[in-house]
# Entry
Amino acid sequence: MTVGEARRQFPHTWTDMIYLNHAAISPISFRVREAVANYLERRALKDIECFPWAPQMAEQTKQMLASRLGTTSDRLAFVLNTSDGLNILTEGIQWKEGDRILLYRYEYPTNVYPFLNQSRKGVIIDYLEPIDGRVTVEAISRAIKPETKMLALSFVQFLNGYRADLEAIGKFCKEKNIIFSVDAIQGFPYLPIDVEKSQIDFLSCGGHKWLMSPEGIAFIYVSKECQSHIAQAAMGWTSVKNSFNHFDFDLSRVRDDASRYENGTMNYDGICGLKASLEFFEEFGYDQMQKQTLGLADLLIDLCNMH
# Structure
């Protein structure tokens, strides 16, 4: 598929509109629109009861995400948005008064408020000052304190587009026994992330930016080790194994994997749109998508430097 052919997959390109605010909210493709419409039509006219085919579709979508993240689908869970996912982490950690969280000074608020909210529990928030807009291991090393328990960082910064070296930072955090949380929404999936190689403990990513899917659908990654430190702050009927066994009320039935954080009926029409978007990316080619995106960024930088 050529770039021109890919562009024609989006309805707004058939008009005189030029859309440049992709990092805020992405346009919807014909494929995503059709997939969601087909899902709703099936629910309305044929399979009103969406079990088991909708959960099967959700699992297929997780597998596609996992392949781009260097992990397995059981480490992923669907949530509403990036903040919703981060709150699973922040509200689940058993904080002690005096624990500290390190944040980047100029983060997008999504990656600030779930952590800042822990100040009500006596947690202290420290802010990392960048060096020429860069978030480096050296800067992090100077900013941490003995009580620093967590570092929360965006993969790509919304303000200046700086891409963090996740592998180097993850290695540093692991050595210092610091929980490493990543907001991936501005970099994934056009940039690959290997969560295990980067030793990321927790990752949250909304779907309405570079994943080019509907609003209200996002996912989290949680490592096995990190999950062991997260108390189940919220729970619902699908948080447990054999969830259709409705009357065996026993907390020992909580699921072993990340699906324990999916507390009930999910946004299946949003997941369906996400799946269609991922299928389109795979057809176009992630390598080509990364090359095209970074090439356009280089072009804009060169034009700005000329003026």
Observations:
- The first strand starts at residue 76 and ends at 79.
- The first helix runs from residue 3 to 7.
